[in-house]
Amino acid sequence: MPQNKKSPLCFANFIVITLIPISFFITMIFGYLGVIPLHVPVHSLGVIGFILFIFLLFTKHNANYSVCNMRATLTDLESALETELQKNSLSIDNEAKSILDIKKFLNQYYKDVRNDNFVSVASSIFPMLGILGTFVAIAISMPNFSVTDTEALDHEISLLLSGVGSAFFASIYGILLSLIWTYFEKRGLSKIDFYFSSIIADFSALVWSQEELTIHKYVQHDIQENKFIDALKETFNIHFLKEINEQHLANFALISGNLQESSKELQKALHEMDRSTSALDAQNNINQVISEFTQATHSFEKTTKVFSAQLNNSLNRTFEKIDTEVGEIVIKLADFATHVSQESKEVQDSISKYHNMVANHVKIK
After folding, report:
1. Which CATH class is domain 236-364?
2. Where are the domains of the chain?
3. Which of 101, 123, 216, 301 has its CA 20 to 30 A from that of 42?
4. 222, exposed or middle or buried, with CB in 10 Å at 0-12, 13-18, 19+?
């Protein structure tokens, strides 16, 4: 917080702001004393003096006076500002600057230099006090109209008109103070803006601008986006997946060919069994074909498992949905292999029954 270091120059600002109001009050005193030909009753002088006293209390909160107190604490301000700049330091591309909002810091630093509540009502309170003083002066100077003498009544009316005329000095004084306050308030605010702008300009080289932060934000966004794209390219390697698909399609084609040949051989053997005159030769042929078909089935099941393992290893980081579908395909293929094995067993059982029947037939003969 700023320390109160009031220099003689700040007192000069105080004199400049209050010079006209004090001069006006001195003129009213001269009129009351008869030094100048101006009739000022004592109650009007008292009202004007009270309004001046209120103005003097408000003067230290005027912007034209506060800017002087701000400049008196420049050394302490620079020290505190440098400390805050270091606390809010940010490094970008090996260059360190601060992200501190200097204008916001200045407003916070000087928030106790003047009372904004007094400032907000000052321009309107002085005319109100002047009007109030006018009515008070009129009420005090109101004569007694209970007299019956005409000359006395004329005298009372003359006193009333004289009092009303002098009472309006309070309203004039209140309006004058409002104009003076507004002028120096606007003038002081322009000085404060210039003072803040000069400080911001002096420390601008130590602070990241909004444009620089925006550019850095978009650059970092582009870097992260490029990294993500590279990761996707590495994960979803099109040529790698194409080679895997071609290899497994070739394996499926080979397996399918083997199964087709085995099926043809089995059909041929069954056909020969029906036509063969020798049940033993037919049985040997069927056993051999069944054995080959069983081996092909095991080979198919083994290849399917290898395919499933390779597919899981290569696509473990990608396409969870594809893994699920391949798993379902493997399960269906395994069910198919089991179904074929059961059919082979049934064929073997049928052959055994047929062999037994033929053997019994031979024995009977």
Report:
1. mainly alpha
2. 8-209, 236-364
3. 123
4. exposed
